[in-house]
Amino acid sequence: MKFVFRADANESIGIGHVMRCLSLAEALQEKGHSSVFAMKTPSGLLTNKIISNGHELQILKTPHTGSGLTELANNESQLSATNQIADAHLFLSSIKGTRPEWVIVDHYALDCDWHKCVQPYCNNLMVIDDLINREMHCQVLLNQNLGTKNLHYRKLSPNTQKFMIGPKYALLRKEFSLVRSASLKRREQLEVRKVLLTMGGADQSNYTIRALKKLEGAEISKNLSFQVMIGPSYSHLDGLYEFCQNSKLSVEIHRDPLNIAHLMKNADVCIGAAGSTIWECCCLGLPAIVVSTAENQNKVLKSLIENVCSVGSTVNQIPNDLEKLFYNRTLLKNLVHNSKVICDGLGAKRVVRVLENCT
Questions:
Q1: For 96-118, what is each residue's pLDDT tens digit?
Q2: 0.90 cut: is pTM over it?
Q3: Residue 310: which region, alpha, beta or left (left: phi > 0; alpha: psi -120 to 50)?
């Protein structure tokens, strides 16, 4: 079967949409299906990642500066119906009149106006969402976030036939399920020595440096080593390297690493944003100190705190929360247990089964 993904990534909106679509494309590829990515202005690193993994890339050419379509390339504000239909026509022209089994949309700016325009030209349409803030028209809807319920979508997406809700369906690459057992075994040590810091693939506001500066002045940091993971759209690289070269912290930088699951497995604590990476931490039972770096992460963070899966924090509080985990083995044990039970890393395979059975 042929699957076409509509998602974007850049410094402003991050790379999370595309990365989770890539995880699903990987699972589809294992079952013999093909995937096409239709995107605006992808970075060179993302382009290489898509193509090197055996997927096709269609770059949607924005007509001219100042149009609503240019807007869509740079942020995720919901577009007018007119601009959504223009984008839908641009999308349809890019797939050259073929009729894919599935179109999968992971974009906050697109709603039912876009879906209804594209629907006649594909057999099925799936939406990946986090916000629960707009009307949708699709056969299947996925929201992988903790605390979301089907009823939240009853009025927004009344025609949807199948809902996939919660971290059970989190779209993780297979490497996480493969190292899960070894990672959970490591958690039995209940110690804090190695800390992984990751604030998202783009981190436009540079929470990475802000957190490191707070940690540099903390007494607890003398006992720790730090692994800093940054994504392909991170734009503060020179400043990060300069800081680390002059810092008293024991710190190592990993730019767009291929072995993310192993970095997480070998860490004792993760300091990160409340984006898609948190489900990777949960899969590996990695205790996390979590900061909301965008408004759309607030609900996720609230649910993580309520379920005692992570420690909710702010940049200023990170050193204190890290010290709390360093000395509190009971809290560490609870975080490991509560996080590992909500996500097993097999979500992409479950989604593939649903999509295959819906055709």
A1: 878 999 999 999 999 999 999 99
A2: yes
A3: beta
Asked whether residue 109 falls in the same domain as residue 187, the answer is no
Domain count within the chain:
2
- Which tokens hold the place of 3? 């699957």
Residues 183 and 78 placed together within one structural domain of the fold: no
Q: Cα–Cα distances in Å, from 191 out to 11, 268, 326? A: 35, 7, 7
Helices and strands of the chain, counted as H and E runs: 14, 13
Query: Hey, is 347 helix, strand or coil?
Result: helix
- State yes or no: pLDDT of 65 exceeds 70: no
Which residue type is seen at 300? V
Q: What domain range includes position 147? A: 2-172+345-358
Instruction: Quickly tell me which residue has 């050193």 as its tokens.
Output: 319
Both 163 and 187 in one domain: the answer is no
Q: How far apart are CA 249 and CA 327, in angstroms?
A: 20
Share of the chain above pLDDT 70, in %: 96
Q: What CATH number has the domain bearing residue 311?
A: 3.40.50.2000
Q: Name which of 104, 113, 127, 108 is nearest 36 in CA terms.
A: 104
